[in-house]
Amino acid sequence: MTPHPFASRKLTARSYKRLCSPLCLSLTGPPKLTSRGNRPLQMEFEDQLHALIFFHLQEHTSGRHLLQSLEEDAFAREHIAPKRGIATSSFFEAMNERGLEQFLLVFEALQRQATQVLPDKHPELGSLVAIDGSLIDAVLSMDWADYRKGAQKTKTHIGFDLNRGVPRTIFLTSGKDGERPFVDRILALGETAVSDQGSQSHHDFDQLQAAGKHFVTRIKENTVKTCLESYPVAPGSIVFSDAKVLLGREGVNQPYTPLRLVGYTVEGKSYWIATSRFDLTVEQIALIYKLRWQIETFFAWWKRRLKVYHLISRSRHGLMSQMLAGLITSILLAIYCQEQHGEPVSIHRVRQLRNQIFNEPPIERSDPTTQGQSKLKIIHASS
């Protein structure tokens, strides 16, 4: 498939148009969907994209709930649904078989745009990427998912930009995989992975340092440590240890490259943080690990407020499309809240936006802001 100009629909709802405006900034769009038969497609990719943004924004709980809104809700029928409507079978066929490449391109392009729009809150710490996973309850028909204690699960693995508070990478697995295999794939040269104990791997610590990538990882307290050099710690600090060490037992699981190990206490709880960042203070190392909590907050908000884990599709293809649409919606909201209010996303601002979308009058056709404008084109993800 070859890229084609992808003109955004002429939305007449001010707030929804403003929310979706980051989609309409570049020269060419994602590859055009093509019909596999003689009949034209009932749902183009633009229709599919707006339908899933609407699904997450309005907290729908199923595909049928969404389809009912597209048919009965005046706003959805006017601005979201395909002009000739969409049959149930055609909608689910599109979800399960089409659009995945396009969703990925749009997500990657939006994420790059977010790095230009959203403020870098911690430039002195370098690029920080939290890496974590979240299990999704599956159903019996999802035979590709993993069984655990009688319940099927699948799992998303996300790289999260801690400097700007938005997701930047996603992988989908059957549910039994940890985050360690994805750290090197998510991280770019010079970036720092921030992760919990589940990512502790002495071999991976060696590999990351050899590749010019960094890590700030909490390790298990009972990990064997061989101190090579101790550094002074300020009296009264929460930090009780700062040293260059080798982890593990020699000849068993000890890495070749020394690393830095910082120990500190918060509210009576001790933390041991392994890192390759010798350039930062111990307080900055402790701050970086504290920032990791952002990804936990994101997962909770993503589930509860955008209803991402209320599944529309049961196939790998459809589920990944829905996850990408959820990430796209979250980035659109982050850009919207920054540009309109100068603040991060909050449920207060999301509710305010929903009320505006449904209650404000449409733009008049003679509105001078809409005259003479050329067709806007969706942002394109270059390799």
A few lines on this structure:
By secondary structure, the protein is α+β, with helices and mostly antiparallel strands. Helices cover 37% and strands 19% of the residues. It folds into 2 domains: 153 residues, no CATH class; 176 residues, Transposase Inhibitor Protein From Tn5, Chain A, domain 1 (Alpha-Beta Complex), CATH 3.90.350.10.
Task: Describe the overall structure.
With 383 residues, this protein is an alpha+beta fold. It has 2 domains: 14-108 and 313-370, no CATH class; 121-296, Alpha-Beta Complex (Transposase Inhibitor Protein From Tn5, Chain A, domain 1), CATH 3.90.350. It is built from 12 helices and 10 strands. It has helices at 14-20, 45-57, 63-72, 74-79, 88-97, 100-117, 180-186, 202-210, 282-291, 293-306, 316-341, 347-359; strands at 128-137, 146-148, 151-161, 166-173, 192-195, 214-218, 225-230, 239-247, 259-266, 269-275. Strands 1, 2, 3, 4, 5, 6, 7, 8, 9 and 10 form a 10-stranded mixed β-sheet that branches. A hairpin with a 4-residue loop joins strand 3 and strand 4 (166-173). Helix 2 (45-57) packs across helix 11 (316-341), helix 5 packs across helix 11 (316-341) and helix 6 (100-117) packs parallel to helix 11. It is elongated, with a radius of gyration of 23 Å.
